[in-house]
Structures are given as structure tokens and as C-alpha cells.
Design brief:
Blueprint lengths: L7 H25 L4 E2 L1 H10 L10 E5 H14 L4 E4 L12 E5 L3 E3 L13 E10 L3 H22 L9 H21 L3 H12 L9 E3 L11 E3 H4 L3 E5 L2 E5 L3 H8 L19 E3 L4
Helix pairs in contact: 2-8, 4-5, 4-6
Length: about 280
């Protein structure tokens, strides 16, 4: 995916609103004894720079599935006047397997969501981490299965998905994706049934005391966001943009697995963001 640069004042306003959403999220979690941890690119910013990555335009938060489900219920029932909880099973057109907590009254229309109907406000990215099998062969089977099913789901929903490669290779992948999208649409495969199938597999071990958890839907393979529970707990509280947030206990193990080169500041052409084609702030 190409890196699209913001107007500096526009990016600053996006980040300010996202931090406000984060403050509300933290307050909700504290009030309801919900555990969370910063993850994704936000955890790189904390570990490498002690702040939000300067060009970043989203904030990533992880929760274990039981906490995710509680948060989902609370946002929907108690905070629906201010926020939309956008989850793949709540919105038919939403194809990601993580959730967004979207601020109502704002618009953040990404190119990947063109033509799809779900709330698209400025958001907090929420990643559910599910219990996974302690058996490595079973783990690999489950992981690759749901990862591939999600790629099919994505190709059904959108003709031009986000591509992380560059150059001729990227153009070839985009062409293949466009062809596959047209074939899958003709086959009339139900996106909802695919989501339900994925959901059933990822929650297979929800009532078991497993040693590891994972979010299986990272771009390159299913296993880069795999965590041992001993790496997560006890959580650590750290400074982040003049507020306190939680990170996992062994954040370096996670970063090494998820982003092998996380210590290096990437060149501009290697950066990633979500710059929307339509952006509106509240009360504009």
C-alpha cells in the first residue's frame, strides 16, 4: 500500500480525536475492570520512541476475548449515544476481523471501504486475542484455515484490497485480486456464513485454559500476533502521550515476532497509514 501524506494540521487533529477516544476507552475499562494492552504500531511507538509514531493515524489496542466481549456489550448498551462499535458480526459489510470504536459525528472513509455500508468515523482499533491450541499442528491448521477464509471474505467484499507489496509484483497481485473478486461474486458465497465459520474456529478454545492466544489475521501470515500468556501478564503501565496505558509484560518478544525490524525507523516509502479519501471532524 502506498503511504499517503496528510496535511500536518489535519493529522494532528485526527490524532487528537483518537487520543480522546482512547481516554474514554481507558475510563470504561477502569470502571468495569477490563484488561487491555497496547499493540500493533502503537506498541512500536511506545517501545521505540516513547510516544505515538509521528505519522501514525490510528491507535491499536488488544484485549483477550472475554474482555473484548464485555467491552462490546458495554459500548453498545451504555455508550451508543457517542460511539459505534463496529464488529464483523454486527455489520454485514464490515470485513475486518478486528473492531473499530467509531466516534459518531465524524467521517473517516478509507479507500478499502468504498461502497460498503458500516459506520466509518474516526476510530480506535480493537483486536481480540483468542485462546489457541497448545498443540502446534492443530494451531497451524486452525491458523492457516481462518487466515485463508478471511482472505476469501475480503476478496468477496472488495475488488482492490490493501496490498503491502510494491512495484510490478503489487500490480500483478491487484490484477489477480480483481479477477478473483469477480469470480467469487458470481459464485454468490455468503460473507456472513464465512464470518460465522471463522468465528466458530477462533472461539474453539474459549473455555479452555490454553498457554497461548493469538489474533490470526495479520497481513502476511496468521502467527505474527501470537502471544504466550506468560508474555502478557502481569501488564505494565507506561506513559503514552501524557497519559498512562498498559502494555504486555514482555513487549519485546511480541515486537520481535510481529515486526522483526521494529527498532529501525522506516523510510517514507515503507511507511503505512490509513489516510482516508473523505475526512470530516465533528460539527464541521
Amino acid at each position: 500500500m502506498d503511504y499517503l501524506e496528510y496535511d500536518p494540521e489535519e493529522l494532528q487533529q485526527v490524532q487528537k480525536i483518537e487520543l480522546g477516544i482512547l481516554d474514554d476507552f481507558i475510563e470504561i475499562c477502569d470502571k468495569n475492570h477490563i484488561s487491555y494492552f497496547m499493540c500493533g504500531g502503537t506498541s512500536i511507538g511506545i517501545a521505540r520512541e516513547g510516544r505515538m509514531i509521528p505519522w501514525d493515524d490510528d491507535i491499536d489496542v488488544g484485549l483477550l476475548r472475554k474482555d473484548y466481549d464485555r467491552l462490546k456489550e458495554i459500548i453498545i448498551t451504555e455508550y451508543n449515544d457517542k460511539y459505534d462499535f463496529v464488529d464483523p458480526l454486527l455489520y454485514e459489510d464490515y470485513f475486518a476481523m478486528n473492531a473499530h470504536i467509531c466516534l459518531k459525528g465524524t467521517i473517516f472513509e478509507e479507500y478499502s471501504g468504498i461502497g460498503l455500508n458500516y459506520p466509518k468515523g474516526i476510530f480506535l482499533d480493537i483486536f481480540p486475542f483468542d485462546n489457541i491450541s497448545d498443540d502446534d499442528s492443530r494451531l497451524k491448521k486452525d491458523g492457516w484455515k481462518v487466515w485463508k477464509l478471511h482472505k476469501i471474505l475480503t476478496l468477496i467484499m472488495i475488488e482492490k484490497p490493501v496490498i503491502y507489496q510494491k512495484g510490478l509484483f503489487a500490480k500483478t497481485i491487484r490484477l489477480i485480486c480483481s479477477i478473483l473478486h469477480k469470480i467469487l461474486v458470481l459464485l454468490k458465497i455468503s460473507p456472513l456464513k464465512l464470518k460465522e465459520r471463522i468465528d466458530k474456529i477462533v472461539k474453539r478454545y474459549k473455555d479452555e485454559d490454553t498457554k497461548r492466544v493469538a489474533f490470526y489475521f495479520d497481513p502476511k501470515n496468521p502467527f505474527t500476533s501470537l502471544l504466550y500468556k506468560t508474555e502478557i501478564m502481569p501488564l505494565k503501565k507506561v506513559d503514552f502521550q501524557n497519559r498512562k496505558v498498559f502494555i504486555i509484560n514482555n513487549i519485546y518478544a511480541y515486537l520481535k515476532r510481529r515486526y522483526p525490524n521494529w527498532r529501525q525507523v522506516p523510510k517514507e516509502e515503507d511507511r503505512h497509514n490509513h489516510k482516508p479519501y473523505k475526512l470530516e471532524f465533528k460539527n464541521e
